[in-house]
């Protein structure tokens, strides 16, 4: 039987996880498996080190970020939340998306406006993450969670967009 | 690939002996070598007591090669055969270089740029190898022994082609590279940022030719690089060039020849260094035309001339902070690296930006080599007190060319190494048996704006109808930040054959040719050496497996154990046979036979680390 990422770090599969334990166990695994520990080892040992360290990195990055973690939890349930066949969104959210996008365009050259938008987006993101925790960990409402996850992904993209625009403004 | 992974004949395989390992800072302007002796990292000096080796290589008329101060002294008389700052050309094509600023005869090739000298056409890799050879000789003389391996530092912002070129140079110099280490990470190690200094640090590294900014987090004995950024074409040399242009302007000189350019650039550098501790610098020089240059440069003028360069370093700094999602309030300390950070206006600008005084108590020229030595000592397996683990990241995103000249990112920048990502492709014609994949590195969306790393041809795809084949291409970036690619057709499970054409690197063939030409005079010697190396490798493998069986033999059942032991016996018999190739082959077979055992041992040690968890079968 193979281990999933949660089992690798000795965590219960959940959205609301102990991030300190995750980081701690990740570091422990890297301390044992990182290629730096096997520089003068046999090539078979180097290969094993490379594979384990790579897996630990992939697993850590997946579980560390809330959006990736939710996506992975749904995958464990056999649900691909981001498949192209799975992108129907409620009309009100689509409307809201457009408003966000317009706000970003309107403030594209306004540094303080962009920072204010970023704050709003962070707030909205936190709310969506709270909803996800409820849907994934308490209600086990997978389809509802998949929809919330898609909203969250949209917010992530919006935040990246703003970061890109801020980078241009600050240059 | 095992060829010339030099572990010296006669090198002891005894486990407890102190292994000689050094750290090398292969700099644009100067290079250094350092080692750990009696627990202390120190820079090794040459016969004249110099720690720095100017990264200057001169090809002399008599066919000999000069490296260092004497070569540097000759650069004005012999500019076209005296190569400085070769690091700037590593893994670079002609179009990446501002040729007008350089006195050399560049050869345009589709790959890495080359320079025509009186000793023939030289690639930057060969030129760098000369510097490494000089440092190797210095180290072996000073430590009275052969080196087990080296850690060579590279700018964190170096892309795959530049890293590969550095590793190739080491191979040409006969050095066994334990790791390529990012310069800022090395500096942080040198500062002994240890458990008592947990927190987030910025390493501001302004070297001769490159600027790097890295943000590192240190917690519980693990260094994690949070973000890195920089400008691989900004360094102390640019300050010299500003002063050089100013001299021409002030003294109303006509455009000068290569020799005078070199002369005035040297004067410019001297003036810059003088201004670190003085208010004005006098620049006096007689040009080959007989014209006299005699002007005074004040600190104020110098600061004005170079202000935009100082500001230019803050842009990547801001970007790195944003990538790491941090503000200046999160930064516990700022480490200054690189000779150019001696300039007072740089220190002021950094202090002003971060609202704290930067750390400058270690010599900014030596700090990288000192850190590299500490890491080399650890990697070679010598016990040390501060056994830090460094988790480094890939500095630039890796992507693939897709339809319409766009780049699709496969591995985003700042991903922790090692990392592997798989991508699936399919055929678009019936019966298609080959496809070509273009790998790029960079952050931009268009192929033309990113650096082309390599083109891969996948061949041997089983013929199927269009769209039926599933070719899974796996991109792996190792702890040195180097990319490798493998591919497999998943419906038939056929391993596709990959032909790599590096865009800027040297091909395996070119390297072998260079190696051959450097060893040709001692052919017999070489064979004897290869045999001795094969034996040493085989014996150390046998010793390692014996030890592993002793410690963890219980992880294997009787049959598995017997399989390994019979391959060990076969290798032993080959060692007595005394044929180099046969020994190498048997070594490879034994290595392959122990892969499952190695994986089991790894799982066992990870589960021990997490305390009592059975991880017998991790899905990799």
Question: Would you kindly provide a written description of the structure presented here, covering whatever features stand out?
Answer:
The complex is a heterodimer of chains A (171) and B (620). Chain A is mainly alpha-helical and 171 residues long. Chain A folds into two domains: 5-64, DnaJ domain (Helix Hairpins); 86-170, Monooxygenase. Chain A has helices spanning 5-8, 19-33, 43-64, 66-76, 91-106, 111-138, 142-170. In chain A, helix 2 (19-33) packs antiparallel against helix 3 (43-64) and helix 3 packs across helix 4 (66-76). Chain B is of the alpha+beta class. Chain B has four domains: 21-191 and 365-384, ATPase, nucleotide binding domain (Nucleotidyltransferase, domain 5), CATH 3.30.420.40; 236-305, Actin, Chain A, domain 4 (Alpha-Beta Complex), CATH 3.90.640.10; 398-506, Substrate Binding Domain Of DNAk, Chain A, domain 1 (Sandwich); 513-609, Substrate Binding Domain Of Dnak, Chain:A, Domain 2, CATH 1.20.1270.10. Chain B is built from 14 helices and 28 strands. In chain B, the strands form seven sheets. In chain B, strands 1, 2, 3, 4, 11 and 12 form a six-stranded mixed beta sheet that branches. In chain B, a hairpin with a 3-residue loop joins strand 1 (21-26) and strand 2 (30-37). In chain B, helix 11 (523-552) packs antiparallel against helix 12 (558-577). Chain B is globular, with a radius of gyration of 26 Å. Residues 1-15 and 612-620 of chain B have low confidence and may be disordered. The chains are: A mainly alpha (171), B alpha+beta (620).
